[in-house]
Amino acid sequence: MKATYDARTDTLSIVLKPGVEVAESDEDKPGVILDYDQDGNLVSLEILDASKRVGETRRIEFEMVE
């Protein structure tokens, strides 16, 4: 999984399955684009105007729970 914030375009991209080809994209809500593979599985999402939608665009936390 990979998360990238582009300050120039104010876009936050989260890739859940790197290397998987996007077959379809859907703007479920305005400014939130979901990308799916050929089997309909979510592979990535993109948040436009991220600084207005996300608390801290330059900080990310990851936690694994067992």
Write the layout of secondary structure elements.
Elements: E1 2-6, E2 11-15, E3 24-29, E4 32-36, E5 42-48, H1 50-53
Antiparallel strand pairs: 1-2, 2-5, 3-4, 4-5
| Uncertain runs | none
Order of strands in the sheet with most strands: 1-2-5-4-3
The gyration radius over C-alpha positions equals 13 Å
Percent of residues in helices: under 10%
Give the termini distance in whole angstroms. 18 Å
Structural class: mainly beta
Oligomer: single chain
Q: Which percent band covers the strand fraction?
A: 35-45%
Structure annotation, total helices:
1
Count the beta strands.
5
Number of domains: 1
Mean pLDDT: 91
Describe this protein's structure.
The chain has one helix at about 50-55, and strands at about 1-5, 10-15, 25-30, 30-35, 40-50. With about 70 residues, the protein is mainly beta. It has one domain (about 1-55). Strands 1-2-5-4-3 form a five-stranded antiparallel β-sheet. A hairpin with a 2-residue loop joins strand 3 (about 25-30) and strand 4 (about 30-35). The two termini are about 20 Å apart.
Précis, in short:
By secondary structure, the chain is mostly beta strands. It is 6% helix and 42% strand.
List the defining traits of the structure above:
66 residues; mainly beta; five-stranded antiparallel β-sheet; 1 helix
